[in-house]
Design a protein that fits this description.
13% strand, 5-stranded antiparallel sheet, alpha+beta, two-stranded antiparallel sheet, 429 residues, 9 strands, BirA Bifunctional Protein, domain 2
Length: 429
């Protein structure tokens, strides 16, 4: 996995160090310190695969010679506690090949250091990490003074600003990630502290779980476990050399204790993650079983509803058939009634005039009503009777006249006879 490492430190004379000796060690060369009169030969040192000096365009040519450059630095610094050089150490991504790593390093050094006016002595080392894989890294020694016409001028204090170091850390992560992306690699590095990265991973994991993205949440959970460690202390070149010779040092003990704590913390983190995954799997199995059971119950309910629907539909069809038959019988009955003259519309008969005042016997309305009733009941009205009596008398008179004519009787006697009959009839009444 690609790791991030960028550290900066100052090589100072106060610690008894020499910039010439440091340059000889990092470049695996033999250099002579003219101020001390010492020869530093590291030409047999292994693991150095590349070294070069990168300088601004206005730098004189002699500054591109390693021996002359650092002896000039030692000569210009007069103080016993003088700061001789700044060293930047970066871890190169092992996922890149040697050419890609060198291209990445050169671009970073040129933009962040050389373009600011510094001279950079670059050395690339390839060692072995504790996991047995390669551990490529680079040492960059930087001058701390401005360039004058043919030498060094004053020290530039702005190069010591903490914000500038933070900018270098962020720039290295950005450049390295861009190089990894160009190479088609998915690994990325982060310049932020472990604590900040872990908190961010926890937030992403929680958000992924809320959105039901289990795979993404698991990936962030693994990252949280990997980031749950404390920074490993640096042993230093002297203690590291003694450790390699089998001599146990105090710095080595501190380093090994930190490694043990990190291993224990990571083991606990993996166990917790496995337990969480097991609980999640059990939860999924329970939910799946419950879902299957609910589906079965739902199918049963649907079947029951279908059966009820069929029964209701069948009953409705039967009722509709009966209604059809009843309609046919009604039509048949109507036809029979029409043939027999039944069901003919009759005039509406007014209900009897109960409680209504009847007309007096002498009123014309009464005679009219009586005549209507007599006509309806087939009885003869009083008027009819009188008409019939008058008609009878007329007929009787005519018959008498005929008889008188036949017998030769005169007409003068008729009134007397009629008067006598009237008198007799009056007596009869």
């Amino acid at each position: 996995m690609a790791i991030y490492h960028l550290s900066a430190k100052v090589i100072s004379r106060a610690g008894g160090r020499s910039s010439v000796a440091a340059a000889a060690y990092r470049s695996a060369e033999q250099l002579r310190d003219a101020r001390q009169g010492l020869e530093h030969d590291y030409s047999r040192k292994g693991g150095v695969v590349h070294s070069e000096i990168m300088a601004p365009e206005n730098a004189p040519d002699w500054m591109r010679d390693r021996d002359q450059l650092w002896n000039a630095v030692e000569a210009v610094e007069k103080r016993r506690d003088a700061q001789l050089a700044r060293e930047i150490e970066v871890a190169l991504p092992r996922e890149l090949d040697r050419g890609e790593r060198l291209e990445l390093l050169r671009g970073f050094v040129q933009r962040e250091f050389v373009d600011r006016g510094m001279i950079a002595d670059v050395a690339v080392h390839e060692g072995k990490a504790r996991d047995g894989h390669g551990q490529p890294h680079a040492h960059v020694m930087l001058t701390m003074r401005e360039l004058a016409s043919e030498g060094f001028g004053k020290k530039d204090r702005s190069w010591n600003a903490p914000d500038l170091l933070l900018g270098w850390r962020e720039a290295w992560a950005r450049d390295a990630n861009a190089a990894l992306e160009r190479a088609g690699r998915s690994e990325r590095i982060d310049h932020r502290s472990l604590e900040v990265q872990r908190e961010e991973a926890e937030r992403h994991a929680g958000r992924a779980r809320e959105e039901r993205q289990d795979d993404l949440a698991l990936a962030y959970d693994k990252k949280v476990v990997e980031l749950s460690r404390e920074p490993e202390p640096k042993i230093g070149p002297s203690a590291n050399a003694q450790e390699k010779r089998g001599i146990q040092t105090e710095r080595g003990d501190v380093f090994r204790a930190a490694i043990a704590r990190n291993a224990e913390r990571q083991e606990l983190g993996w166990r917790q993650l496995e337990l969480r995954l097991e609980l999640m799997e059990r939860g999924r199995a329970f939910i799946e079983t419950a879902r299957e059971r609910l589906e079965q119950l739902w199918k049963r309910a649907e079947g029951a509803m279908e059966r009820i629907k069929e029964r209701v539909t069948g009953g409705a069809e039967q009722a509709q058939g009966r209604e059809g038959r009843e309609d046919l019988s009604d039509l048949e009955q109507q036809r029979r009634a029409a043939i027999l003259g039944r069901g003919v519309d009759r005039p509406q008969v007014d209900p009897p005039d109960i409680g209504r005042e009847r007309p007096s016997p002498d009123s014309p309305d009464r005679d009219q009503d009586q005549d209507r009733r007599d006509a309806i009941l087939g009885r003869e009205s009083a008027t009819g009777q009188e008409d019939r009596a008058t008609a009878g008398r007329d007929d009787e008179g005519r018959a008498q006249e005929q008889r008188d004519a036949i017998l030769g009787r005169g007409h003068d006697s008729v009134p007397e006879i009629e008067q006598g009959r009237d008198r007799d009839s009056g007596r009869e009444r």
